[in-house]
Write a structure and sequence with these properties.
By secondary structure, this protein is an alpha+beta fold. Helix content is 54%, strand content 19%.
Length: 511
């Protein structure tokens, strides 16, 4: 069993006096807060990582700790600013399988092994409010660290940590920071004890860091690689959330896969296709596996909202119960499919390929060109492809073929949008404005496609309800509403497309 908490903390260098802070101005008779002694503990933690420290390089830590009130295994993942998520499991000898899974996107299947042992003599005091409720924990740690790698060393230091209670007020950290400054405590940027221990106990023969990409700063290739690296990082960081079924995580990971695929396609004049085409194919596979779960989420939400919007007197028969039973079977299968994909050797191979994209990028000679020359051409090519698809769809007669053509145009709109977003930092407002306008086209086409999928599901539910002797009225009513919604989106399309039209596009992008 795992437990998850969020910790928001800051670390401080302790002045020469080495004593516990008194927090002047923050504690005292009229301050509303005070310090309460919470004891002293001896903590002993062994940190695990790969031989080349892949967890530490991604600001994640995995440890087995004894002593204190939370002995066990702890995986800490960064959430931004001063906040990390801590996922804990009960104490056992080996790395728990669950935590091993949650680190896979960072380790890429490499073996986890002990790298550092950190022992701390911890003095704890709680900062409590006027009602005696704990609002923060302040700890003084006297630390000794020993490398567990060959030829590693020993180090020792003293540090102060201030940690908010979960969901505490971040403004309190600023007040504590100000009080500590008056006593000579200085904030440090070291993200964790492990980070400092690894630096100060590093073996004489250090593990070779991952190679830095050889790309000219400010070039077209540099801008594209920055976008690629952002999407790869998103996929890696979302992996644990998807495995745990956290809200919207599947959607975000799938979007990152789609953005990366589109970028590799749109800017293939800058990147070696022999390398990127296989990666694109594997991203398509992963997005497809995740898509089953995500599409079910979207479809269920749409159908439920449709039922909820109807007056009660128009909901005839066990409509909600039938929807619930339908979703239970499909959601379970979709969830299993997502988890199976993330546990497969194919996924590990993809993670390795994504890492190579960012560390050894397959740049072509054109990547060294100025962004103002190389990037607009790629965007305009995607625009021309989309224009052909939109016009082709509008010429189709209403029916399944037109629906399919509009869905094809939607995919093109996504590619153009993502190409413009990738170029935004280099090309500025023209690219950003185009991305915004095309996003509106994509949204309308997406809603149209969702209606097509919803109508087919509603038809099947109506057939099943009829076979079971249930009223089909509500299913037919919902079908009609979806049909009307799709027609509305089609009527909006010409105006939305006109806004994103070619008028002035080449001039705006400098092409």
């Amino acid at each position: 069993m795992t437990q998850s908490t969020r910790e928001t903390e800051r670390k401080y260098e302790v002045p020469a006096s080495g004593g516990f802070p008194r927090l002047p101005g923050l504690t005292g008779p009229d301050s509303g807060t005070s310090l309460v002694d919470a004891g002293t503990h001896d903590l002993d933690a062994v940190y695990y990582d790969t031989a080349d420290l892949r967890l530490a390089r991604s600001s994640a830590t995995l440890r087995r700790r004894t002593g204190g009130s939370d002995a066990g295994w702890h995986l800490k993942l960064p959430l931004g600013d001063d906040t990390r998520e801590e996922i804990g499991t009960p104490l056992q000898e080996e790395v728990p399988d669950r935590l091993r899974e949650l680190t896979l996107s960072r380790t890429r299947g490499a073996r986890l092994e002990p790298v550092v042992r950190i022992r701390s003599r911890r003095t704890v005091r709680d900062l409590v409010d006027a009602d005696g409720a704990r609002v923060a924990e302040i700890v003084l740690d006297r630390v000794e660290a020993d490398s567990l790698r060959p030829e590693g060393g020993h180090t020792a230091w003293t540090e102060l940590e201030v940690e908010l209670v979960e969901n505490g007020d971040p403004a309190l950290l600023e007040r504590v920071d100000k009080a500590l400054g008056k006593e000579g405590f200085t904030r440090v940027d070291t993200p964790s004890k492990l980070s400092r221990a690894l630096t100060e106990t590093a073996p004489k023969t250090r593990t070779s860091p991952e190679p830095e990409p050889d790309v000219a700063a400010g070039s077209a290739g540099a801008h594209v690689l920055a976008y690629v690296a952002e999407q790869v990082r998103t996929i890696v960081e979302l992996d644990p959330a998807v495995r745990r079924g956290l809200p919207d995580s599947v959607h975000k990971m799938r979007v990152a896969c789609r953005r990366l695929r589109s970028c590799l396609r749109s800017y293939r004049s800058l990147l070696d296709r022999e390398v990127t085409d296989p990666v694109r194919a594997e991203l398509q596979w992963l997005g497809g596996e995740l898509g089953v779960e995500r599409d079910q989420e979207v479809l269920l939400e749409r159908l439920r909202e449709g039922v909820d919007d109807l007056p009660p007197e128009l909901v005839l028969g066990p409509v909600s119960a039938r929807l619930q039973a339908w979703d239970a079977e499909r959601s379970s299968e979709a969830r299993e499919r997502s988890l199976a994909a993330l546990s497969s050797p194919r996924y590990v191979a993809l993670l390795k390929a994504l890492n190579r994209l960012t560390t050894r990028p397959p740049l072509r000679p054109k990547a060294s060109r100025k962004p103002s020359k190389a990037l607009p051409r790629a965007i305009l090519k995607e625009y021309d492809r989309l224009a052909g698809r939109v016009e082709g769809a509008r010429r189709q007669a209403a029916g399944p073929e037109r629906d399919a053509a509009l869905h094809h145009a939607r995919k093109g709109a996504k590619r153009l949008r993502y190409a413009a977003e990738a170029a935004g930092p280099a090309l500025g407002k023209p690219a950003e404005r185009l991305a915004k306008q095309v996003k509106a086209v994509q949204k309308a086409l997406g809603d149209h496609h969702d209606s097509v999928v919803a109508r087919e599901t509603l038809r099947r539910q109506a057939v099943a309800a009829h076979a079971a002797g249930e009223p089909g009225f509500t299913w037919g009513l919902l079908y009609g509403r979806e049909q009307a919604a799709a027609a509305d989106r089609e009527r909006e399309l010409p105006e939305l497309w006109e806004r994103a039209s070619r008028s002035g596009l080449r001039k705006a992008l400098g092409a």
